[in-house]
Amino acid sequence: MTKQLSNLPVVVTGADGFLGSHMVKALVNQGFEVLKVSRSEGYDVCSKESLQKLPPFGSLIHLAAQTFVPDSYTHPDAFFFTNIVGTLNCLELCKKNKAPIVFASSYVYGPPQYLPVNESHPVNSWNPYATSKIIGEQLCTCYSKEFNVPAGIMRIFNIFGPQQKLSSLIPKIIDGIAKGDLTLESDYPKRDFVYINDVVDAFISYLNSGKEGLSIYNIGSGKSYSVKEIVDLAQKHLKKNISVQYKNIKRTNEVLDVVADYSKIMKELNWRPKFDIDEGLKAIVEKMNF
Question: Per CATH, which fold does 10-160+193-220+254-274 belong to?
Answer without folding.
Answer: Rossmann fold (3.40.50)
